[in-house]
Write a structure and sequence with these properties.
alpha+beta; Conserved hypothetical protein from pyrococcus furiosus pfu- 392566-001, ParB domain; globular
């Protein structure tokens, strides 16, 4: 069996456990190349308050953070004492440093499907949710995600119970069901585009 096959077999059999770890036991990686502005930390803290701490912090065997620096800062801001964590003590120092970079960089290489994003945000806005869509990380103002108008929108189902709230441009109210549903107005408007 090749070295590559052995490594894949070891990774496939790796059992990672999520454990609670005290914040005072966690240390930021001294060479973390990412910075976290106060605005990001506030939004993360708001997310944690609403949904809980859902993504464990990844640490090495010494408690040094490899992934989750911003989440730890948000947890501290909230006065939390413990956070969920995963220890990856099977990584050597070079692997841990490469993971620190990759965890941050690889997400940046993906792209947004603007049409699907706009539809999902619109759908969420019609759900009478008890949270602000700004918690998604998108500015919902005029320059926000919904302002990036998709070229060919798939119609979203119109709910007779829709609240008919006005959404940021280009989505406006005016529903074929007479309830002010923004989804219907949007689908009518985009259907007439070339």
């Amino acid at each position: 069996m090749s070295t590559h096959s052995n490594a894949l077999s070891a990774i496939a059999n790796l059992k990672l456990e999520v454990t609670s770890r005290r914040l005072d036991e966690l240390r930021p990686h001294p060479r973390n190349p990412r910075t976290h502005p106060a605005r990001q930390i506030k939004k993360l803290a708001d997310n944690i308050k609403l949904w809980g701490f859902l993504v464990p912090v990844v640490v090495d065997g010494t408690g040094q953070i490899l992934a989750g620096h911003a989440s730890v800062l948000a947890a501290r801001r909230l006065g939390m004492v413990e956070v969920p964590s995963i220890c990856v003590d099977h990584l050597d120092e070079a692997q841990a440093q490469a993971f620190l970079i990759a965890d941050n960089r690889l997400n940046e290489l993906s792209t947004w499907d603007d049409q699907t994003l706009a539809e999902l945000l619109l759908h969420l806005s019609l759900q009478n949710a008890d949270f602000s869509l700004d918690l998604t990380g998108f500015d919902m103002g005029a320059s926000g995600a919904l302002a990036r108008r998709p070229r060919r929108a798939r119609p979203m189902p119109c709910r007779k119970s829709c609240p008919g709230r006005r959404l940021p441009s280009p989505v406006t109210s005016g529903c074929s069901a007479g309830t002010g549903c923004s989804a219907a107005a949007r689908s009518k408007r985009t259907a007439t585009r070339p």
